[in-house]
Specification:
The structure is a single chain. The radius of gyration is 21 Å and the shape is elongated. It folds into two domains: 184 residues, Peptidoglycan recognition protein-like (Lysozyme-like), CATH 3.40.80.10; 110 residues, Jelly Rolls, CATH 2.60.120. By secondary structure, it is an alpha+beta fold. The protein is built from five helices and 20 strands. Helix 3 packs across helix 5. The structure holds zinc ion (ZN). Pfam families: Amidase_2. One of its GO terms (molecular function) is N-acetylmuramoyl-L-alanine amidase activity. This is N-acetylmuramoyl-L-alanine amidase domain-containing protein.
Length: 318
């Protein structure tokens, strides 16, 4: 379901601290193809750094109907969400480094496109590079990839001589360097979150507000929550209507992650049941310098889930 996937990608970017703007109609917009997303393509718009081409990305040009991308990245690093369904950005594939993506004339149905708003004849901003590499990492996570091989430059897949994303006139960015950053930005540095083959299955997530995330009432799930600033303390809370039986929320494992993929599992004596009401918090849940996200593996049981919410968030006063 492409709307849910694109929403999850956007929410994960928000959880990592990026500003995300949903362009109205994004969840219905597409070129008419049925999505079969398996990778992502990085582009430059060949315009200025201002996002004045937004209308063209949404509606297209006289020679090419819109949408022309799924995401766009602005000079300040803001991510724009343009279209949940396939867009006209990649043309046919088969260029010098297409694999493992398919070689096909109908390439757009397989790839999400990020149009980075800059000329290409000079480098993109640092903020754009940071957003673009993180977006590719998050796309790979949501598509279930364990490596960076499904992230490509348009220059690598094009059969018509495209050279984007450029860092100078006709000069494409070093995509192996780009992908090495993508790989490091993926949770667990390409490993399963907690190691081993019994890693929990991924749960979709909903973002309530910046730096707070709902633990969905699934029997068994994992969420990743971005650490918005240094030195914050994690808290987990179950809240809901008084007089109704709360669900049983059990925290199985917690691990803090650094930006380069190192994980620090917290030592727990066993699964921790979080009672309804008071938040579960403590000094031992503090993020340490350099840690940018936390992975929480949890389970839900009981019938009270629909009357209650469970949230993970960070507090400042520890
Ligand atoms: Zn392109």
């Amino acid at each position: 379901m492409s709307v849910a996937r694109v929403r999850e990608i956007a929410n994960r970017m928000k959880a990592r601290g990026f500003r995300v703007v949903f362009e109205p109609g994004w969840e219905r917009r597409g070129n008419g193809m049925s999505p079969a997303y398996t990778g992502d393509i990085v582009h430059h718009t060949a315009t200025g750094f201002a996002n004045s081409n937004l209308s063209i990305l949404i509606h297209g040009r006289s020679d090419l109907p819109g949408p022309l991308c799924n995401f766009t990245t602005w000079a300040d690093g803001t991510l724009g969400v343009i279209a949940a369904f396939p867009a006209n950005h990649a043309g046919a594939s088969g260029g010098r480094n297409t694999r493992p993506l398919p070689v096909t004339r109908s390439f757009n149905k397989y790839v999400l496109g990020n149009e980075i708003a800059y000329p290409g004849t000079e480098p993109m901003t640092d903020a754009q590079y940071h957003t673009a590499t993180t977006l590719s990492a998050v796309i790979n996570e949501v598509l279930g990839h364990k490596d960076d091989a499904h992230t490509k430059a348009h220059a690598e897949t094009s059969v018509t001589g495209k050279w984007d994303p450029g860092r100078g006139n006709g000069v494409t960015y070093d995509m192996n360097a780009f992908r090495s950053i993508v790989r490091k930005a993926m949770h667990g540095n390409g490993r399963t979150p907690f190691g081993g083959s019994a890693a929990p299955k991924r749960s979709s997530l909903a973002l309530l507000e910046d730096a707070a995330m709902e633990l969905k009432p699934t029997p068994h799930g994992t969420i990743s929550l971005g650490v918005p600033e240094r030195g914050l303390s994690l808290q987990i809370q179950v809240a809901g209507a008084a007089g109704t039986p709360p669900p049983k929320l059990t925290i199985h494992r917690i691990a803090f992650m650094t930006g380069d993929g190192k994980k620090r599992p917290l030592k727990m004596t066993g699964p921790k049941t979080v009672p309804a009401g008071d938040p579960w918090q403590g000094d031992w849940l503090n993020a340490q310098p350099g840690e940018t996200s936390v992975l929480i593996e949890y389970s839900f049981a009981g019938r009270g889930a629909k009357n209650h919410t469970a949230t993970a968030s960070f507090r400042r006063d520890y």
